[in-house]
Amino acid sequence: MTTEPAALASEPETATAPVADTTDSTVTLQVWRGDPDGGAFAEYSLPANEGEVVLDVVHRLQAGPAPDLACRWNCKAGKCGSCSAEINGRPRLMCMTRVDELPPGPITVAPMRTFPIIRDLVTDVSFNFAMAKLVPAFSPPPPPAEGYRMQQIDVERGQEFRKCIECFMCQDVCHVIRDHEENKPAYAGPRFFIRIAELEMHPLDTNDRRDLVRQQMGLGMCNITKCCTEVCPEHIKITDNAIIPMKERVVDADFDPVGWLGRKILRRSKTSPTETAAISAYPGPSPSAPAG
Ligand code: SF4
Ligand code: SF4
Ligand code: FES
User: How many A from CA of 232 to the centre of ligand 2?
Assistant: First the structure.
């Protein structure tokens, strides 16, 4: 029987939350330790160092009392998206979470709940890579002799979505898959809704991913709770700027006869035959069996 890490805290810490007492000489971490068969929180106390982030303390645990503690990280600068964990019940980057900005008392550190556990703080996020493979690529027409030109507003719209560091914390917090494993084969999640929005809103793109996002990626299951937006470390307005516009486009494509006709006559091709074949052949990602 698998022991689940702590459930997500229902409320964010507010600006008025008490600040850790920096005169306290110790920092206490309760770290989830375990594997796919189960686990539990283990408590460690270390001397506190000024200015540390949670990842610093985890590294000191690895160098001291818990040398076999597994965690994933790369940049320690908030840019690689590797060190996502649930700190005091909320998804956060361990490398960007200062210890002295958390409430006093023990700090819990647990793996992301939405993904299968490999060991300790490391989860199997291959679900996301399997979903990424389903998104048809950017497909511009051949460039004219004078080259492509874009309005600045179109450049900026795409740049917001390109800030994504693939930390997958938005995926972790999305209730559609967080507590409903059965939804995963038919639901891509907010990270891929912004990827599709980025491509669909690109003025040069000729692919059409609206049927894909509605019929196979489950856009309709998103009920705009905005939890994904709240946890995004890059402050991407996932719901307002990507999901809601995509929902409008999908409705236009499928239920507006004028739009449907215009789409047929004027503009976009569907996905390429190769992409269509790949999507049709896809059985849905298996979280317990990492893709390729
Ligand atoms: S807004 Fe939609 S995608 Fe984002 S967390 Fe809520 S249900 Fe999931
Ligand atoms: S959209 Fe934000 S929360 Fe989601 S994976 Fe990208 S950076 Fe992380
Ligand atoms: S280690 Fe790269 S984002 Fe934290």
Answer: 5
